[in-house]
Amino acid sequence: MDAALDDLADPQRRPEILQFLARPFRWRHQATHDVSAQRNTPTKPTQPTIYKPSAGPLLSRPHRDISGRRHVPVLVNANRFPFLRIKKPQPASLSGIIRSTARTREKRLLRTEALKQERITALDEQQWDEILEYQLGVERDEGEKAVPWQGAIDDSLKEIRQRTDRAVKKRIAMAELMTDIVDKETALAREEHLQRQDKAHKIRKARRLKRQGRDPAASGLPLDELADLLNSNNDVEPDSSTASNTEDGPDSGRPASHSPEPGFSDSQNLINAIHPYESHDDSTITAPSREANQLLLAALMNGQSLREALTGPGQRSQGRWSQKATGENGWQARNDHHTVYRATINTYRLPDSGKKSQLVRVNPGASNNAKDDESRHGVEDISKADSDTALEREQIHQNRARRKEEKTRRKEEKARASEERARLHREAHERKKAAKLHEQSFAGRMKRWLRAHDLNAYESAQSDHAPPPDDSGTFAENGGIHSREAAKRPNQDL
């Protein structure tokens, strides 16, 4: 206790003892028991938390590898502060930076105005000291002579001016960098747009080549993308279980399966798998036309099943294969309402049968009764239909050419009429202008001649509403000059 009192008398130990006594009892007890442990146990320095933003620095743009479509930033000038607007809404941090920069510039301007007002007062004080020194002999100190009253104010103004210049140069450099970033981003966006267009064109070309039975690799697509495209389009297999028994027996329908033939492409094998039908007569092979094959193949590649492709979109898969008794019209796809969706069928007869090739067309809604005649089956000669179609097409082309010629003729007539109206208008304007000039010149000559010769006779004639006498040599009833001397020398009087 005495030692504690002695320490209390010590001016260096006194604040520590008083601070210790001012603590609560719990804190004093903990401090007395933990002080040795705190002194003996070394503590690890705390590692500062490093913040790593998800996006890179702004000036590191443009980024080559991005996810999604590239958006070109916009260079914006906000209160003389340039920045790049990447997206909307504007980040709160950017708004804070803009407000802080504007506030700093405003403070500098206000400080500059205040210093200018103070400088006026300092100049007055400096002038007063000079008056006292030169007129009254009041001497100043060496420090006052070395540093004038306005010296500190001039230094402050100079510092503010330098800071403002540095800020302006920094903003100019930042604007140039941001402009360069916008130009590069625009070029990359245009390049990526062209690449997307080229890729879409190659995909369409690959699909078209595949529909035509050619090698899709000729489209120029990479192998991995081409494999994904082919796998996505080949996941639908033709439904070969739709063969049904008809009046001709179980063997007259479509076969249940078909193995790909060597030497053919996938498209050709798919077509062969769709219609590998042979009738009872070995000399006749019936198959759909090329147009029907292309339509059916396109439907299958778009993800439709065989029944959906044959019965039409939106129909229930209740269609069935049927063979007519005569075997003339090949196979057809029908739904429950007996509507024929396969509109075109080609029948090829082999040369050994002695018959020529016959192309027939099955109209939608044709009867399916084998005892009906050919007209009730809706069968017609496709060559005649093709010739009629060619004639109609030729007629359409002729009508189109005739309408085009008529339109051209009307346009030429309209142009000629417009030119004629313009010519007549110009001629009328020229005549009117010439008449006006002639009238002005004649009236002027008449007035000058009357003023020089017989103005009193002209005024009396105007007052009496009668022409002046003919022997006066002035003018006749028609206003013409009748003086022989004046007629002989009209320009001399003028």
From TrEMBL:
Ranges of Basic and acidic residues composition bias in the record: 370-430, 482-494
Membrane spanning stretches: none
Biased composition, class Polar residues, residue ranges: 33-49, 230-247, 314-326
UniProt lists compositionally biased (Basic residues) regions at: 201-211
Region ranges (Disordered): 32-65, 192-268, 309-335, 352-441, 459-494
Q: What is this protein called?
A: Uncharacterized protein
